[in-house]
Design a protein that fits this description.
The complex is a heterodimer of chains A (334) and B (273). Chain A is of the alpha+beta class and 334 residues long. Chain A contains nine helices and 19 strands. Chain B has a domain of 172 residues: MetI-like fold (Orthogonal Bundle). Helix content of chain B is 74%, strand content 0%. Chain B is globular and about 70 Å long. The chains are: A alpha+beta (334), B mainly alpha (273). The interface between A and B is medium-sized, with 32 and 22 residues.
């Protein structure tokens, strides 16, 4: 358990600056998710915290200790890799116990701690197998077990679920959240999937080109995005970001409305348009509408709503849920 | 029973293996024939199995001495080549340091240098080192010449190892040197076995170098011994063939033992395939 503080850290490869100047506090015991499009520097930042990448400038402080120049194993962290990186020639038991063996812990203690970790992850029956005899989900669990057994202050996850299929991913998401509740440790999790971020995090950090765009709780980011990038990144389907005369009339650069915050009517409304295409998902209906003078607008409606391509339709944004992004960078919600 | 394609393949394979098996069996069987029969039917089964020639060779102490000398030289060459080759290759594959490419290219130059061209300077160096007429006089030059290609093979193999494996081990507290012994070597048995077999067989069959470096009969390898033997019994071809057959055995055994590892790929399961 520990607080992680990044103090004006920078990372550059030669002349290329990947992370310009970044400060961030990750509270003790939080599940913080770093999220952003690929190439935004989130993995690099995680690897800097792990000590696998050198920090070009600034400080990394874990549990009140400056670890900027420390070796990875001296930082009190454990990391789970995207590819699992299990040791192929070792059994599950040896994989999980490897760090303890290197730290020269007594054998009975290693055995006990490995078995404890295996119990938490339901790996008891697999302890004597080799990684190649395991399924994807089991391998993932072993990788997590390898982290748990070291009893780290901070867990680092680098896109750990991206190699799993959709069903398993959902299951592992729940398991990871439960694990966090059980261990009560600080976890930092990198992903490009905003659904993973929204479902697991208690703090989300959105990054773009090495710069933090916004930090906050999931619902905070959903309800009060500070800029159009965050607004568009969080939520699915994507928020409608409308420019042009509609924005100019309201003295804004961009007007943002979430698809679920638009009601429709056959008779009257604020915007008029024609249905271009509708997706019927059962629980929801997602309609893509060509609005006059505004452009394409996505609307999400609860339940099954009959829609015909080409039919005229009226739309009205729900009050209090329209985000006006001003040219000066401020935001107003009306 | 077989399709045309399959039959074609089988015929080609039979032909290729016969290229190896026919002379080999002629050699082995030749030792069981009389000289007279050798001339009449060099390839057929012996009419009467004569075991005395083999028995005589196996009872000869100098035969065992030749074999032991060859074995010692080969096994030490293999050991040293594997140790130094794999360590050098590991450095080239894992560490980035100034002049790495230059050094590596320099090492690879060794590939283009034929043994025979270097034989005179080699002899002088070995003489100056005072290891003429000792096994080291053969072992060290053989290791030196084997390093170039073994480093090349090792480096390619090591470089294919996933980076995340090293990073995971690093987070677990494993440094470069420990990683080499705990991960790189155990995961490289296929390439280690391949190079070991290659170096062993090459050393086992080496004639030129022992010929130059070893003058004392006590230190002769089997290749020199075979020449000696042939000189002594030049008209008794069955003896020479029996001698050659008996000396081939260790190399064949070594190959069979290593074969399993050559075929096996061990990295499966390291990263998601």
């Amino acid at each position: 358990m520990a607080e992680v503080i990044l103090n004006q850290v920078r990372k550059s490869y030669g002349a290329v600056e990947v992370i310009p100047d970044l400060s961030l506090v990750i509270p003790d015991g939080s599940f913080t998710v770093l999220v952003g499009p690929s190439g935004c520097g989130k993995s690099t930042l995680l690897r800097m915290i792990a000590g696998l990448e050198k920090t070009s400038a600034g400080q990394i402080i874990i549990d009140r200790e400056n670890v900027t120049g420390a070796e990875p194993d001296k930082r009190g962290i454990a990391m789970v890799f995207q590819s699992y990186a299990l040791y192929p020639h070792m059994s599950v038991r040896q994989n999980i116990g490897f760090a303890l063996r290197l730290a020269k812990r007594p054998k009975p203690e290693i055995r006990q701690r490995v078995e404890e970790a295996a119990e938490i992850l339901q790996l008891e029956s697999l302890l004597d197998r080799k990684p190649r005899e395991l399924s994807g989900g089991q391998r993932q669990r072993v990788a997590i077990g390898r982290a748990i057994v070291r009893n780290p202050k901070v867990f680092l996850f680098d896109e750990p679920l991206s190699n799993l299929d959709a069903a398993l991913r959902t299951q592992m998401r729940v398991e990871l959240a439960e694990l966090h509740a059980k261990l009560d440790a600080t976890m930092i999790y990198v992903t490009h999937d905003q659904v993973e971020a929204m479902t697991m995090a208690d703090q989300i950090v959105i990054m773009k080109s090495g710069v933090i765009q916004q930090v906050g709780q999931p619902m905070e980011l959903y309800n009060q995005p500070e800029n159009p990038f965050v607004a568009g990144f969080i939520g699915s389907p994507k928020m409608n970001l409308l420019e042009g005369s509609l924005a100019r009339d309201q003295n804004a650069a961009i007007v943002g409305v979430r698809p679920e915050h638009i009601s429709i009517s056959q008779e009257s409304g604020e915007w008029h348009g024609k249905v271009r295409h509708a997706e019927h998902l059962g629980s929801d209906t997602v309609a893509y509408i060509d609005a006059d003078d505004i452009g394409s607008v996505t609307v999400r409606l609860q339940g099954e709503v009959p829609m015909k391509t080409g039919s005229p339709i009226w739309m009205t944004p729900v009050k209090g849920n329209v985000h006006l992004f001003r040219p000066d960078g401020s935001v107003e919600r009306v | 029973m077989f399709s045309w394609k399959e039959s074609g393949r089988i015929i080609v394979l039979l032909f290729v293996s016969s290229l190896i098996l026919v002379p080999l069996s002629a050699t082995v069987l030749g030792g069981f024939k009389t000289t007279g029969e050798m001339r009449v039917s060099p390839f057929g089964l012996p009419r009467e199995w004569i075991t005395e020639v083999y028995a005589e060779i196996l009872a000869d102490s100098s035969f065992w001495r030749y074999l032991w000398n060859s074995f010692l030289i080969s096994i030490l060459t293999v050991a040293l080549t594997l140790i130094f080759g794999s360590m050098a290759a590991y450095a080239f594959a894992q560490a980035k340091f100034f002049g790495a490419n230059f050094l590596y290219s320099y090492l690879l130059l060794g590939l283009m240098f034929p043994f025979a061209a270097a034989i005179l300077p080699l002899f002088l160096t070995v003489r100056d080192l005072g290891i003429l007429d000792t096994p080291w006089g053969v072992i060290l030059p053989q290791v030196a010449f084997g390093l170039a290609f073994s480093v090349m093979f090792f480096r390619t193999f090591f470089a294919q190892m996933p980076d995340e494996l090293f990073e995971a081990a690093r987070v677990d507290g494993c440094g470069y040197i420990r990683f080499f012994f705990l991960f790189t070597l155990p995961l490289s048995t296929p390439i280690l076995a391949t190079i070991a077999t290659f170096v062993f067989v090459q050393s086992w069959n080496n004639y030129l170098l022992p010929l130059i470096m070893l003058n004392d009969r006590e230190g002769y390898t089997w290749t020199l011994g075979a020449m000696d033997y042939r000189g002594e019994y030049s008209w008794e071809w069955n003896r020479t063939l029996a001698f050659v057959s008996a000396t081939l055995a260790p190399a064949v055994v070594f190959f069979l033992a290593a074969q399993k590892y050559i075929v096996a790929g061990l990295t499966g399961g390291a990263v998601k395939g």
